[in-house]
Sequence to fold (70 residues):
Amino acid sequence: LDEAVDVARSSSDTATRMDAMAKVQQILYDDAVIVVNYERGSVYVSHPRLKGIVRRAVGTDPDYTGAWIE
Fold:
């Protein structure tokens, strides 16, 4: 990758630069790391009289097990 970038940066020939950048793109495409970003959506109900709801980053969210109505 570094060699192809160096060629692309230092060459004054357009065709040579294009070939070098094509190699750079292919290397990046072949070696790309895929990071899956997942964020779970959550919808829950609440009311001012509903107390004891537990919010968690992991597990059951929200947890109404110990909830009560005032």
